Amino acid sequence: MRIICTDNYEQMSKKAANIVASQIILKPNSVLGLATGSTPIGMYKQLIKTYKDGHIDFEEVTTFNLDEYYGLNKQNEQSYYYYMYENFFKYINIDMNKVNIPDGTAVNIDSECLEYERKIRNCGGIDLQVLGIGTNGHIGFNEPDIKFEALTHIVELDEQTIKDNSRFFNSIKDVPTKAISMGIKTIMRAKKIILLASGIEKSDAIYKAIYGKITPNLPASVLQLHPDVTFILDKDAASKLN
Ligand code: F6R
After folding, report:
1. Is there an atom of ligand 1 within 6 Å of 181 CB?
2. How far is the CA of 91 from the centre of ligand 1 (A)?
3. Strand locations in 177-238, DSSP E?
4. pLDDT tens by residue, 5-56
């Protein structure tokens, strides 16, 4: 495990964007695993700049997002599809046929989940997975539990996650209570992983993920077992580490 501590959010975002850009330069047809939420916004902005400056090309890149709210369609402004399009995809030359995000409105959720796994496998697996972390230690929407859920699945969101994410909605009542998420095995199969965290409210989860017991009760702790994982933190998120 590598830990990169940066001074602030901007530095964290630049380091993360540089790692993603290097991945694409080294392998133009990379398969990227992507995250939403507030943390990676700066990284996406930086990648857009790197693209506009002519240093990277997304034409051959395939992407798989970690998760999507259950019940929200692509047009819904709170959906992760909408987020990805508005914050990233519309500014770069990605082929939208190579963009994959779980369908939150799928009628048959079980087959949607199986199909998502099949697509990842058929693309040769994820080369680089970008993760954020919940204040409760979740990755993707793998919430604290008594067991690790292996593959893409439907999940009941944790009370803490609903509270944390209510900042994006008009009212807490509007936050979906379920989501479709890649599982822990899906994430752990990625060849490389970077996890981004910023802010004091993430410091406890970061400390436990890095130094705590490996337990499904703090899902990010499983990353201790991954052979190529890098935590990219700002000063506040790293503040409990020493
Ligand atoms: C988002 C995701 C989540 C977020 C986490 C942190 O696709 O999978 O695990 O990364 O909830 O969210 P922010 O960055 O908003 O604090």
Report:
1. no
2. 22
3. 178-181, 192-197, 229-234
4. 999 999 999 999 999 999 999 999 999 999 999 999 999 999 999 999 999 9
Q: Is the CB of 33 under 6 A from ligand 1?
A: no
Asked whether 74 and 42 are in contact (CB, 8 A), the reply is no
Q: Which one of the listed residues 143, 158, 164, 234 is annotated catalytic?
A: 143
For 148-189, what is each residue's pLDDT tens digit? 999 999 999 999 999 999 999 999 999 999 999 999 999 999
Distance 201 CA to ligand 1 centre (A): 13
Active site residue 18: no
Would you list the DSSP string of 66-101? SEEETT--TTSTTSHHHHHHHHTGGGS---GGGEE-
Q: Which amino acid is at 171?
A: S
The question of ipTM being above 0.90 is answered as: yes
Domains along the chain with CATH numbers: 18-122+133-220 (3.40.50.1360)
Catalytic residue among 100, 112, 117, 136: 136
Tell me how far apart the alpha carbons of residues 228 and 219 are, in angstroms, rounded to a whole number: 17
Active site residue 67: yes
SS3 193: strand
Indicate the pTM of the whole model: 0.98
* Tokens describing residue 233: 């933190």
